[in-house]
Amino acid sequence: MNQIQSINYPIYFNSVTTHLNNFINEGKYSRFFILTDEHTSTHCLPYIREKLNNRDDFDLIEINAGEESKTIDFCIGIWKMLIDFDADRSSLLINLGGGVVTDLGGFAASTFKRGIDFIHIPTTLLSQVDASVGGKTGIDIDNLKNIIGTFTQPKAVFIEHAFLSTLPARQVKSGMAEMLKHGLIADASYWNVLKISDLENPTDQLIYQSVVIKNKVVTEDPSERGIRKILNFGHTIGHALESYSLDNDSNPLTHGEAIAAGMICEAYLSHLKAGLPAGDMQEIVDTLLGVYGKYPIHESCYTALNAIMKKDKKNQGGKINCSLLTKIGECRIDNICTDDELCDSLKYYASLQYAQV
Amino acid sequence: MNQIQSINYPIYFNSVTTHLNNFINEGKYSRFFILTDEHTSTHCLPYIREKLNNRDDFDLIEINAGEESKTIDFCIGIWKMLIDFDADRSSLLINLGGGVVTDLGGFAASTFKRGIDFIHIPTTLLSQVDASVGGKTGIDIDNLKNIIGTFTQPKAVFIEHAFLSTLPARQVKSGMAEMLKHGLIADASYWNVLKISDLENPTDQLIYQSVVIKNKVVTEDPSERGIRKILNFGHTIGHALESYSLDNDSNPLTHGEAIAAGMICEAYLSHLKAGLPAGDMQEIVDTLLGVYGKYPIHESCYTALNAIMKKDKKNQGGKINCSLLTKIGECRIDNICTDDELCDSLKYYASLQYAQV
To answer: InterPro entries per the record (chains A, B) (predicted)?
Structure first.
């Protein structure tokens, strides 16, 4: 349980001391750079420095924390720092942070001098079980999430349980939403274990199982032509809610909170269109509302949400395309949903009686 | 002589009518977009429209002509237009233009929604024999040429001799520099034919041969780990001259003029370091100066040129790395050149007695 093989790179668990040192020292790289944000500089870099025996022969690139940094402007900033540091094609970029750092750093590296190697050391639960595995890099434009990016695999991923203790509970729960999704789309027994677990303190074993599920899917379909789309369950509506909230709320939804709300809406659509049994739907709704509470979606914002969904990357020929559950543990891709159906799912969510987030 | 197979796509010669229509109509694409610049909109788009039976079910994206457009700002502009036009992952981008359009359009497409398909219809000799073949996409930052980009293969390339009649003689000669380079690095008999050809009116056959040479090299080594670097002969110094001239001259050097001067300097280095016979060096110098004249390089700009070379993508561990000729028709990669040697080659060029460009 300390290593998984992905497409063409290893995912290491809790073994940064041995394997990261081996990786850097094997002689393949002329230099290395570490990308952090202001939080991971403080809370995670000292841990990595210590594991690297306090060597200091690298340059540090730090960005602001938060989704607001996942822009082309910050990417240009990284490119220019790599230029200033005389990074060459044999340089290595180590992305130490959450999904913003790994997505942005991966994109910057995959395009710098037409591609330098990079590795991820994800420091949030969300990036450990989701962003760091599968080779998606990306930046946002005008709050359209990951609208620009590449499919480029890292050379290695290092998942360290130790970092989870640095996170606020809300961030851990955010990552947990993707883990719950992994159960819903691919493994009912995993879902059954998860839903009664301590969702603020996931064990090594649960994280490992989530990465195994995600890795299996992306390895089968690296560039999202087919089966990989099951990972988008909850994300058509969830991404729209996340973008909307980022633009309109002073304390925006986390990714996991948005995806949890999206999964509830899409469980409704799954029941409507893909045969998800009513009992399964109710179980999903109860579990997710129980963990994440409820986000107030007013009728006045349906049009704006629909407009965001129209820009979703999975759409084809102008039609909104969702991945829906046929039952807990099974997901079907390429379900075209009409504007009315999507609107109904939002109304369904709005009608649920629960405490607000 | 109307088709070559490249890495995983065809290069068609003078057969846009049949093959472009087939390509668009085979049902793979939801929509298509044509990227042009103000020149190709006027001089080349009507030709393509006619070949496409005047269909108008596409959107046009036009950029300003010239290297100044090969920036991240223009790339963002293309991304935003694709977003506004609701381009989806099944969209096709057709790049109709010279190297700026094909490099920039290729980069924009390869990163939009993590990559949509694109094809090139190169309209300059330079882009026909060089930029459009081999899957390099790129943009400049701070005049560092192609410092950002990807290796992404187009789905097809269409080379149409008809476009050459739309070009000023200086542009044709610019492309010819790359053809001459192909002879120098890989085929002495081709060089011997070329150097006595009408360099302002290259025949179909000569263009075809040049594409065959370039294609053979890039197919062997798509991501430039080894042999592909021979294509960089003349480009370490040539790119520096091109960047410098773009920043400092009211009428900057064309790419071909800069590369011709770069090839003379690097022929000198080849003689010094790689065994290029003196007679071969003299033949290269005489031929290139005869065609391109001489660019005045003052001693005062050696430092600036050296600083640009220090940023060259081929460098490793801070050392400037050139591809040099061992004789006409053969090239050796990975020759580390010192600052003094590079400076000497510029002095050698400056000492040559010829009319100025």
So the answer is: Dehydroquinate_synthase, DHQ_synth_AroB, DHQ_synth_fam, DHQS/DOIS_N, DHQS_C
CB contact under 8 Å between B147 and A316, yes or no, is no
Residue B42 inside a domain? The answer is: yes
Q: Among the three residues A147, A166, A185, which one is the final residue of a domain in this structure?
A: A166
ipTM: 0.91
Q: How far apart are CA B45 and CA B35, in angstroms?
A: 10
Our CA-based measurement puts residue B119 at a distance from the nearest CA of chain A, in whole angstroms, of 18
- List all residues 6 or more positions away from B327 whose beta carbon is below 8 Å from its beta carbon: B188, B275, B276, B277, B280
Say which of A30, A80, A110 has its CB closest to residue B317. A30
Q: What are phi and psi of A34, to 5 degrees?
A: -115, 125
Chain B nearest-CA distance from A114, in A, is 4
Residue A73 shares a structural domain with residue A143: yes
Residue B197 domain boundaries: 169-351
Phi, psi of A147 (to 5 degrees): -70, -25
Asked if A138's CB is within 8 angstroms of B30's CB, the reply is no
**pLDDT lower than 70: segments of chain B:** 1, 355-357
Q: Do A316 and B111 touch (CB under 8 A)?
A: no
Task: Give Cα A157 distance to the centre of its chain.
Answer: 14
- Interchain proximity B76–A72, CB inside 8 Å: yes
Q: Do the strands A10-13 and A31-37 form a parallel or antiparallel pair, or are they unpaired? A: unpaired
In Å, how far is B259's CA from the nearest CA of chain A? 20
For chain A, how far is it from start to end, CA to CA, in angstroms?
Answer: 36
Segment B150-203, tens digit of pLDDT: 999 999 999 999 999 989 999 999 999 999 999 999 999 999 999 999 988 999
